[in-house]
Amino acid sequence: MYSLLIRPITRRIKDNSKASAIALGYFKFEGKIPGGRFVSRLIHRNRPLGLEREVFGLNFYNPVGLGAGLDVNGEMYNDLNDLGFSFVEIGPFNSTASIRKAITKLQSDPPNDILAACIAGNYLPAFCLAYDFCDFFVIDISENPDMEIFDDLLDARLTYEVYKPLVVKIPESIPPEDLDYIVQYCMMNSVDGIEARNIKQIEYIKEKTKGRLSIIANCHIKTPQQAHEALNAGASLVEVRMGLVQTDRKNIEVLVINVKMNVEQRIGILLKAHGFTLSAAESCTGGRISHLITTVSGASAYYLGSVTSYAVSVKESVLGVQPQIIKAHGVVSLEVAAAMADGVRQLTGSTFAVATTGLAEGADERWPEGTVWIGVSGPNATETKIFQTSGDRKSNIRHFTTASLLFLEKCIKKYIKDCK
Fold first, then answer.
1. Phi-psi domain of 275 (left: phi exceeds 0; alpha: psi -120 through 50; beta: other)
2. pLDDT of residue 386
3. CA-CA distance, 208 to 413, in Å (whole number)?
4. Which of 131, 241, 294, 312 has its CA 20 to 30 A from that of 372?
């Protein structure tokens, strides 16, 4: 009903508040029918997997959330989560009365997923009242861009046993070059993130903080393309308008997987989405591939482990590389890379395995410095690739690692395509 009738209507309405009211009205109507809310949640329940990311210590099952202004009083947050949003932001609240009204709803229908509260006035009392009921807080200073508001909030947070993130929502009118004080305050006082209002602000914050401060994009996002732009600019999460719902797994995967995220993140999405596992056998990269793979939140679901087979004896005794292969072709060769990948895949039982053998420093009789052979073993075949670069030892290892992950990603995608 929602996807067939309500969603097409809301997409055509340019007035976002009117479109949101219609969408919310639909769920309220369902709730008045005996058993309607229960049935609605069964129908709409949508939890896309394989797109998880950790932002300011919370695990979001995708980066797409619903911003404040729709479910102002906290009436339908669970129903909205069921549409595929990984978080819902209720409010904005500017009085303790409005917070108390929402708390009554929260107590009768506890949130199933991440819930944020947007506080736009009467900051300290509202924050303290809502603290035990929400997962993180967006402090809206759009009308009063004064970071001193946070002094009392940060002191109050110290009195609670559970740490909950604080995010500052900045005015859309602030140009990027005037953000320095806000950014500096956040970095020095443990404010967990900034809710930015346009792409230029996102790009500036990312550059100034070197990516160390999480960013939520609140940029009037109504289409997947606009969400793409915000994520590409450096946002960790995006708040979309009702025009994007229902945000089913296919739509979110298209939205997220093509974003310029790190290759190790893209590999994680592919592996988790298809139930594949991965292992690694590293020589010249010295464990760097394994390190990058395990920096991705949720990597334990698909990454089984690695063997850092730096010595020839370990290649032979642990990975099962035959001595005659090394004697005939040399340690740095496509044959050894393939044998290493096959060996660690067999050892761990993984779906895919990646292996490296190369020369980060110095040359041998066959290859110049900066040469690596990469092997990827999969269910259908073992593929190899040579990659050559120039630089010092450390930069060569970095380049070897990136090239290996890119080749691994290509092989996984090829296997998925061939199996369809």
1. left
2. 96
3. 35
4. 294
